[in-house]
Automatic annotation (TrEMBL):
A GO cellular-component term linked to this record: plasma membrane
Organism: Asarcornis scutulata
Alphabetical list of PROSITE patterns matching this protein: TM4_1
Name the UniProt record assigns to this protein: Tetraspanin
Keyword Glycoprotein: yes
Keywords: Glycoprotein, Lysosome, Membrane, Transmembrane, Transmembrane helix
Listed transmembrane segments: 12-38, 58-79, 91-116, 214-238
Lineage per the UniProt record: Eukaryota, Metazoa, Chordata, Craniata, Vertebrata
Amino acid sequence: LSPGAKMGFFTFIKVMMILFNLAIFLGGGALLGVGIWVTVDGQSFVKIFGGISSTVLQVVNVGYFLIVIGAILLIIGFLGCYGAQKESKCLLMMFFSVVLIIFIAEVAAAVVVLVYTSLAETFLTAVVTPILKEKYGADHEFTHIWNVTMAEVHCCGLNNYTDFEGSPWYEQNKNFPPPCCKGLSPCNASLAAASDVQGCFDQILEDIKTNADVVGGVAAGIAALEIAAMAVSMYLYCRLDQK
């Protein structure tokens, strides 16, 4: 390629890098805003997006999760966009390093989930079950989120109905949440055992396996974008040495 063609290609890649990371930056800002909204007023969020928001993220605080993801995207978008605009080798290398760390972490997390699913279940049981026993029936927002989750996902507790034994709800009503008995009430221990409703962890895993093609496609798409972003940032970094 002639020097002019090389410079034109460099400019094109630079503009694409800026636009792509500007979109990431704006997306990160939107997620951060939603995360703050959920943290401050989670009840109204669940009322508006009840069906959509009933996912595994509700086992933990979805607001904090969105804040963290939004902040990470803001940082990545800023480093990529500003680094390409100012042709800063330092910022481009930082962008490459951050995306590489995230990519490695995602691969490691995928391996852990695939290989150590039972370990993940044990860990979640140790963390989530005590929270259920402490807050379900006492914390209105927490209780509402779990009720929506169990109703939408058709599950009961993290593992099964016994997760609610000793909870404020159980102590007050002497029965289990209706989803644990497929909506029948009063949901006592014998009816809950006979209903044999799956725990939310197992049900979500089953849903993921059922939609494995979609999940795999999304994961592959994200991985491809990350690899492309690293390749472009490294190309710009190396070309700056030749300018």
